[in-house]
Amino acid sequence: MTHLAVDICGIHLKNPTILAAGILDETGKSMIEVAKAGAGAIVTKSVGREPRSGHPTPSIVELHDGLLNAMGLPNPGIDYFADEIKEAKKGGVPIIGSVFGGTEDEIAGLAAQMSRYGVDAVELNLSCPHAKGYGAELGSTPEMVEVVCRRSKKGVSVPLFAKLTPNTSDIAALAVGAERGGADGIVAINTVKGMAIQPEARMPILANRIGGLSGPAIRPIGVRCVYEIFEAVKIPIIGVGGITSGMDALEYIMAGASAVQIGTAVWSEGLEVFSKTSKEMLRFMVENGFESVPDMVGVAHPDRH
Ligand code: SIN
User: Fold this and answer.
1) pLDDT tens digits, residue range 177-206?
2) Which one, 57, 60, 239, 296, has the greatest CB density within 10 A?
């Protein structure tokens, strides 16, 4: 019987669509709505040690084929988040807690605290491209990624995922660093560093000047990154970047992803995007003789034909 259920590092998902960090995931109540809409799992907003208001506005620019954001990691702080996780768990789908920090020790401490809150996995944000001292600044070399993962892994009792930046010449090397450091899975990709300029004003639109591009425009970059990572590591990969349909998700899965995350399409398509993506994937599987998602993982690689 054809089905969409997947297991990633022992976490059971009824389908492979996961809400990506950063949208509708700051409160337990909004996460329950996403679960009701059909997401197979949910990643929380990235949270840090202290409450942060993020960058000044304008912090988002709408483009033809995506969004450019420089939110600056606004979040309520980890201590506030225990109740939100407790509430979110009522949605009945796995919750993945995302954390960011300014040093390896800080991230490791946050990962441990998030793990104690009862999440099903922890995702390390080693890839936000626009928050000074955080995100990609701790994830830009394989050595840094390895050290952060190793430190964080010691304190968590659940699977640990590393979310990597595409703003590098070799994302597969970063993934190898994560695997060496003991990460259980890779999440690829975060946003692509970009800028938009308002010609009349002769200045960048974002107050932070530089932001991260998400949405359909970056899907080919994400698919290429997942393809390269799949050839370099053995741990599972979760693909993210520009997915708005079942066929988009299948590109990531055939490149090597075991599941996918959806973020910007929640803004552009609405919450229905989760059930729509799942339905379209299932239809393709029935029509093309695939019984399960794992049967399709990595089939775009020549040696998996
Ligand atoms: C943000 O909340 O600032 C975006 C998060 C990210 O780019 O990782």
Assistant:
1) 999 999 999 999 999 999 999 999 999 999
2) 239
